[in-house]
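quick one, 73 residues, struct below
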Amino acid sequence: VGAPYFNATFLPLMAILLLILAPGAMLAWKRGALKEGLARLLAAALAGVAAFVIAAWLTWPKPVAAALGAGLA
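---
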């Protein structure tokens, strides 16, 4: 597997995994409902969006990749 294949496939697969992993970690084994897990993550998601907006605003003329990283952290 070379670099072009890795570069083309890694990001989409990891983005899907990231979206599945966050609510899945909040669910109880065999008893959890997706709605409960997403409700618990709402505050964290709002904080992440706020961090992204603040970081993007502070570093506006520069690329937003660093601000996106701050929002995802």
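The chain has a mean pLDDT of 82.
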